[in-house]
């Protein structure tokens, strides 16, 4: 069983590590599961060949996910540069909307990882047109531990609260991890572009550093797709200590679809890769 006979200190460090992975993944790219299958994704895929630093929002200020979309990913634990063992699945969703955005993330560990850290459930976030969240809900099952909590954001008071806890300082323009995931896709990406923005998760504040290294060809599902290669780094806002680091790829077309994420953790290397995509 997960955590049986494990010292409290080691268990806390492991949980902290997984929280860091969640922040990074939610802040900038990927997850998995074949809900619509490879054929549905490939029929809808029309990546444009453009690496220019243009915004993903059109002239009307719309975002690429306003019509609604679902992106499913598979997570694998990798040994070497090829192959890997299934470790989990995740699906990101955006409901159609213009005034209020409703984002969802369904997650589930699988295979050997579920023996170490069993996780399943849903995270939901509601944000305005500026993608600044007003509320986030977490409905998660971590082994025998069940979490049902609401995080509320009070912009006027510059605070946020977790459940019935006391108000905590909210950095200016801070987003929760899920809304930040979608926010990255609205940035004017291009080779050399860099951005630093705050994210709050689990009652803690982080600084997410995003840098576009270059435009390159990424092999995905047996095809070569042009993508922005992003270097991602998450630091603790309190002491600037590095919490997590990864490399992510986003499509260069107007949708800025997250394609893949490579993440190094204390448990090894993980690849998060797009498995199915549907836009409404």
Overall description:
There is one protein chain. The chain is α+β, with helices and mostly antiparallel strands. The protein has one domain (8-279). It is built from four helices and 15 strands. Helix 1 (8-28) packs parallel to helix 4 (177-184).
Strand and helix map with partners:
Elements lengths: L7 H21 L8 H8 L24 E10 L6 E10 L6 E9 L1 H6 L2 E9 L5 E10 L2 E10 L4 E4 L5 E2 L5 E2 H8 L9 E8 L2 E17 L2 E14 L5 E10 L6 E8 L2 E12 L1
Parallel strand pairs: 9-10
Antiparallel strand pairs: 1-2, 1-15, 2-3, 3-4, 4-5, 5-6, 6-7, 7-8, 10-11, 11-12, 12-13, 13-14, 14-15
Which series of helices and strands comes N to C? HHEEEHEEEEEEHEEEEEE
Helix content: 10-25%
Determine the structural class based on helices, strands and strand pairing. alpha+beta
Largest sheet: 15 strands, mixed
Outline type: globular
Outline the low-pLDDT stretches: 16-60
Distance between the termini: 41 Å
Q: Largest beta sheet: what is the strand line-up?
A: 8-7-6-5-4-3-2-1-15-14-13-12-11-10-9
Count of beta strands: 15
Mean pLDDT reading: 79
Number of helices: 4
Strand fraction band? over 45%
* Number of self-contained structural domains: 1
Indicate the radius of gyration in whole angstroms.
18 Å
Key features?
globular; 15-stranded mixed beta sheet; single chain; alpha+beta; 280 residues; 4 helices
Offer a quick outline of the entry:
Strand 5 and strand 6 form a beta hairpin.
